[in-house]
Amino acid sequence: MRKKVLWLIVLALCLATVLGSPGALAQEPKTELVLRLFPGDYFSGIPAGKSTTIFMEVRNTGTRAITNIRLNASKPEGWSVYFNPVSIGYLAPGSAQTVDINVIPAGDTSRRDYNITLIAEANETRTVTSAFLRVVQSGPSAWLWVGIGLAALVIAGFAFVFIRMGRQ
């Protein structure tokens, strides 16, 4: 009987030590900012030199409010990227804010895939995501005119042969 009482006292002291320490069971406040692009992170058919709007959700998935969120982008040379809104003053835990991103590739941008890094910096945290953009030429390329010229030469050649052979 004494052993059981002694074990209960030891167990109670251990529990008091573990539970009595501040923050032993309380969860530490967590700061987590998530950036999500809509409809995904790959966009095709972006015209060179023309404005395209991309939508991004900035979400606070943590347990603590996030303040003074500033939005920025790392982009290819000659490109312009504008955010609306430029910053978010306060984002409560579990809430989200939609941001319009206006992307304008340089007019002389060649047709290929490009990467833009989107950055959200706050007083409490920093988050980065990437968007992949496929640029298309907005006007007719030189190869289009070469093809049209070759087609015109072939048609003129057939017309010449037909007219020449038709007289004999």
Order of helices and strands: HEEEEEEEEEH
Strand content: 35-45%
Which residues sit in consecutive blocks of at least 5 with pLDDT less than 50? none
User: What's the CATH H-level homologous superfamily of the domain at 33-136?
Assistant: Immunoglobulins
- By CATH, the architecture of the domain at 33-136 is named Sandwich
The strand order across the widest sheet is 2-9-8-4-6
What would your notes on this structure say?
This protein has a domain at 33-136: Immunoglobulins (Immunoglobulin-like), CATH 2.60.40.10. Helices cover 26% and strands 41% of the residues. The chain has helices at 2-20, 142-166; strands spanning 33-38, 42-47, 52-60, 66-74, 80-84, 87-91, 96-104, 113-121, 126-136. A hairpin with a 4-residue loop joins strand 8 (113-121) and strand 9 (126-136). The model has no long low-confidence stretch (mean pLDDT 81).
